[in-house]
Amino acid sequence: MEKVKTDKKGAFIAFEGIDGSGKSTQAKLLADRLKDNGISIYETREPTDAPIGSLTRQILTGRIKTDNKVIAALFLADRLDHLLNDLDGICAKIDSGITVISDRYYFSSYAYHSVDVNMDWVISANSICADLLRPTCTVFIDVTPDESLDRIAKGRYRSELFETRERLTIVRKKYMEAFEKLKDKENIVIIDGNQPPEKIAEDIWSKVRCYFE
Questions:
Q1: pTM of the model
Q2: 109 vs 25: CA distance, rounded Å
Q3: Which residue of 56, 105, 136, 188 is most buried, as measured by CB atoms within 10 A?
């Protein structure tokens, strides 16, 4: 594999999935694989570690209480800062030839927030982000809610706001609804996440390697 040329824009791969899907693990595995092939990589996530994202994470862990509509607005504000801030905004990184791999992007808002807010409103509110930067590819790691909850229980001692079987079942359906709505605008790859991590990684690689050859 040849290294991505610096006069080209970097790729943008966004990983999506319900909580416990293994998307964070797979995002890391892909980033490491690309680094090994000499490609400049920036790894990131949403909510971010910036001030708005940190506030959002405190809400998700229950330390701060607020309405779900407020959470939707905070995710949007954090996402815009993620794209545009002067320190490490990902639009500038991609323009400079760096490939960005993000653990979550706007499809997370479409799925999670449309449980409480009209999905078309969430999509419209995030249209400014889509206009600034659409993913080269959105990789959705698809697992059952029962499998995701088992993984969450094994991986940490405290669940977050949206991590219930009922909620995750609805969120997964909302993801599929959003994918159908935007299938003509977005490049979406759905990967079976109910497999060993190594097999999932190979399935992902088979779908995204074309962007790096």
A1: 0.91
A2: 20
A3: 105
